[in-house]
Structures are given as C-alpha cells and as structure tokens.
Amino acid sequence: MADDAASTSPSPGSTPTPERPSRLRRTTSSLALLRESPVGMVGAVLVAFWVLMALVAPILPLYDPLEPLVPFQGMGATAPDGGTLWLGTDHRGRDILSRVIWSSQRVLVWASLATFVAYIFGMAMGCMAGYLGGWWDEVISFFANVLLSFPVMILFVIIVTVLGASGINIVIAVTFASAPAIMRIVRGLILDLRTRDYVFAAQTRGESPWFIMLVELLPNARGPLIVDACLRLGYTVVAIATLGFLGLGLPPPEPDWGMMIKEAVPLGSFAGREMVVPAVALSSLILGFNMLADGLREISLRD
Amino acid sequence: MLILTLKRLTSMVLIMLVVSFLLFALFETDKLEVAGKVLGPYSSVEQREIWLENNGYNKPFLKRYVLWVGNALRGDFGESIQLKVPVSQVLGDRLANTGILALALFTLMIPIALAMGIFAGMKEGSFRDRAISVTAVATTSIPEFASATLLTAIFVFWLGWLPGTSSMSSGFDWQQLVLPVAVLLMYDVGYVARMTRASMAEVMTSQYVRTAILKGIPYRRVILKHALRNALIAPFTVIMLQLNWLLSGVIVVEVFFAYKGFGSLLYDAALFGDIYLIEACTLVAVFVAVFSQFISDIGYTLLNPRIRF
User: Fold this and answer.
1) Cα distance from A111 to chain B (closest Cα, Å)?
2) Of A38, B107, B216, B269, which residue is most buried, by most CB within 10 angstroms?
3) Which of A230, A210, A244, A214 has its CA nearest to residue A285?
4) A126 in contact with B, Cβ within 8 Å
5) Of residues B299, B290, B222, the one with CA closest to residue B17
6) What is the pLDDT of residue A153?
C-alpha cells in the first residue's frame, strides 16, 4: 500500500508519464513471469496445493482428525460408517488423511504468523540500523551477531524449553532466530538505497525518518525480501515440525506433521505408514517453497 | 591479518559473555522448576527451596555469575545437575562422538558435493545441470527428521539391512553410523552442491575461460587448470560454515537415532534445565560458529588474493 501512495501521487511539476498499469495488472503479469521458470512453476503448484488444502480442510468430507475409529487400518479400508479411509488409520484409529490435511492448516497458520512477526521486527531493526546508522547500527548489529552465533536449533530448543511449548512461544522463538538474519538483509539493502536521489528529495521535503524508511526505502527493497520470505516460510515450517517432533511444538491434541511422526516413531514398523505419510507431506511443502524461491530468484536475476 | 584476528577474538569473547549471561538470567527465572526435576514432581515448594539453598543457587545472581565466569576461565565448568559429574568430562566424550559423525560426513560430503556442483556448473542449462540441480534442491528440502523416518522405513523396517538405533551400547559398530551419516549427507550434499554449481557456472562465463577455450586448449585442461581454481573459492567458505550448521543439525539426528553425541547431550540438558551443561555446550557452539567463520575468512583471503581485510 505504501508503494501505491508513492506511485500514484505525482510530484508537482513532473512531466506527464505514460499511465502505469493497475496494481492487479502488474501482479498478474509478474505471476505470469513465473511460467518462464519450470522449477518455479512446480514450486508454486506444490505450495498452492497445500495452501488450498489448509483453506478447504473445514469443508472437505473428512473424518474428525481427533476421533478414534478402528486402529491400524490399511489404505483404502472401510470405516465403520461405510466410508473409505484412503490412507488408513493410525495407532489410535484416527483417519490419517484427515490428520495430514488438518496438520497443513495448523502448520501453515503458525508458520505464517511467526514469519510475519519475525519480519516486522527484522525490518524495523534493519531500517534503523541501515538508515540511522551510528550507535543504532553498532548496538543492533552486535545483538544480531549474538543471536546469529547460536546455532538455530539450539536457540529454538533453549527458548521453548524455558518458556514452555505453545504456539505463541514458538512465534517468539522463531522471531529471535529469524529477525537478526532478516535485519542483516534489510540493513544491507537500505545501505545501498539510502544514497538514492529520491531519498535526498524526501529529506529535503522535511519528511520524518520513519516516513522515509516505510514509504521510500522499504517498498524499493521488496524484491530480495520476497525471495527471502519464501525461503524463510519454508524454514519456519521445518522449525515448527522439528520442534513438534522433539515434543516441544504446538500442544496436542490437534495434529501437526512433526507430532504425527513423533507419535508414530516409538511404534516402529507397526506404524510405517503413519510415519511416512506426514514425512512426505512435509517434504513436499518444503520442496515447494524452495523451488518457488529458486524460480523467483532466477526470474529476478534475468531482468 | 593480525588486526582481523584481534578483532574477531574480542568480538568472540564479548559474544560469549553476553550469551552466557543471558542463559544464566533465563535459568534464574526457571530454577524452582529445575529443583522440581531433581527432587521429583511431587516435591513441595519448601523442599525445593531447601535444595536450592543447600546447593548455593539462592546466592545473589550476579555473584554466582561472576564466580562461574572465573571458574570457567580456569577450565572448571561446574557440575552437571542431572548427571552429577563434572561438565568437562561428559562434554569431551560427547564431542568426540559427534566428531566421528562429522568426520564421516565430511569425507563423504565434500567429494560428492564438489563433483555434483562442478559437473552441473560446467554447462549451465544443460540437461545434466537441470537433473543435478533438481536432485540437489529435492534432497535439501527434506527436513532431517523426515528423511530419518523415510530412510528408517526403507532400510530398517522394509529391507531390514541396518539397525534402527545408533546407541553403540555394545561397543563401536560402523553399521550404526550409516543411517545418521546418510541423513546428514542428504541434507548437506544438496546445499554445498548448489553453491559449487553457482560458483562454477559464474566462472565458466568469465572472459579468461572463454579466452582459454578459444585459444584451443583442450576442454579438460581448461576446466582443471583454469576454471576450478577460482570456482572452488566460494564452496570452501560454504564448507567451513557447514561445521556451524552441523552442531545444530546433529540435535535431531542424534535424538532420533539415540546417538550419544553433542546434540543429544544439549537436548537433554535443555529439557532438564541443567544450566552448567547448557552453558558449556552453548559456549562450544558459539566458539565453533565464530571460529569457523574466522577460518573461512582467512582461507578466503589466501585463496583469493584480490580480497584483503
């Protein structure tokens, strides 16, 4: 929206420029660009599939993911009420297909929220370090270095064990782990952009530093940030699933992929399908994010 | 070079101090819980307070921290609350075990990843390039615990070729190393291969490689003598940084396969709130992170004379 404000208010005295296509038009044409990268297309399809599953989970004719039917049913078995259990049931008799699809909703909601919060903090820090410079830069960069010197998983495990396992605490842990990395990227981009003429113009107009950061600088730094957000969303999904697997993730009983695997592992070969199905689901979503990011980067490098 | 070393050293010491202080402060908010874990879930608050008092955890916070730093400087990291042995003793054994894992991983990963990256990057956009690149993205995309599950399902449950645990309870057994190393390898090879490919592809489009080809030097010689030297600079730094990744990467793998290494030690310590053990493990991790970054910077300047710090 900041971009709109900047692009639709022509500065006084400027020569009339050819009309810019509408926002919708520009978005669809940049999506069409993705067609040029087969890798990006496959990634987009995989991500879109899971996002769609997450959205339509409530209206799909699925069994209750928490309700025990008959334990250890094979693929395509018949449920007590005559329906088909396409992927069978788990050790407590819950429908695996339903659990995998509901997991996608839970994981995607929390991952998006966590990534979003991490981005808010990371961008704010990055803007301040990059644009204000001086002491701001020194202090923010030092603390970013402190957090980045922790191996990521160690940071997650320590934060979540101290604060306790819950959705909000996972958001906090992801913010601590991701915000410094985002801050570095944003800082680098801002350092490059702050010497541009339009920034000087805004400074001369007497705009406040916050206005310049939000309206002038950030919208112009969005390209690399979109690629990074795509990768980071993938990392966050992995982090949430890994914490779930370690028993430090989103609390039960609602399913998520990491927890499904964790519950199945002690049962060993009796629960092979119960382990493999969520593992494949999770891997396909991460593969989607990575391929989409690759595709976006390939396209952005081409221009 | 000397200035760089000094700068890095001071920043490392500063980071270690801040990190250890933060961890101490976190533990401070959590110590009744820890006492509860030592004394059992049904211990009363008074009993827990007495335990904290007797073990000196109720002394002023800053005093304890300064005391701990002083001891740590002399190499005494305190005693593990959970295991009741000196931290340095457990930590040494566990680090050695993870070292074995790391050694096996790197001896396999480096040649495979470099070969994949070089073959893919030699002809950018060719079928070979696409096939290798897609494989690399795919293996990197599978989270470790997912690949651990998949490999276990195939090789332990279905084929029955390998043991599903790596606890080494009856002495060292190389068979038990296969799955943990394979899981780490799947993730890491793809990543390093992609970096190598990008670097190789860039070198292949450079002027001097074109000149060498146009001069009529045999293709093999162009690759080996001209391109490789420059193309391997970036992967070198990436490989060094894998050391850092490995320390957190091993947590999941070691917990999954019950391997007695650094990762599972840290995981247990964090679950228990075993503060001195957590402190020592984290400092090791921070040291490895800063040190591997430093080595990779030094190596970068040695390999690439254009860069000077």
Assistant:
1) 15
2) B269
3) A230
4) no
5) B290
6) 80
- Tell me which chain B residue has its CA closest to the CA of residue A288: B141
ipTM field:
0.80
Q: What is the pTM of this model?
A: 0.82
Contact B31, B52 (CB under 8 A): yes
* pLDDT for B295: 82
> How far is residue B261 from each of residues A108, A157, A197, B45, B191, measured CA to CA in Å?
32, 16, 55, 34, 24
Measured distance CA(A247)–CA(B174) in Å, rounded: 29
Distance from CA of B287 to the nearest CA of A (A): 8
Q: What pLDDT digit, counting tens, does each position of B120-129 carry? A: 888 877 888 8
Q: Cβ contacts (< 8 Å) between B137 and chain A: which residues?
A: 39, 287, 290-291, 294
Point out which residues pair with B79 in neighbouring strands: B86
Mutation target for A interface from B23, B124, B133, B137: give the one with most A CBs within 10 A: B137
pLDDT at A11: 46
Interface check for B303 against chain A (CB to CB < 8 A): the answer is no
Among B30, B140, B252, beta carbon nearest to A162: B30
- Cα–Cα distance for residue pair B120/B135, rounded to 1 Å: 11
Any CB–CB contact under 8 A between B13 and chain A? no
Are A149 and B153 in contact (CB < 8 Å)? no
Give the orientation angle of helix B175-204 with respect to helix B233-257, to 10 degrees.
Answer: 160
CB contact under 8 A, B251 and A157: yes
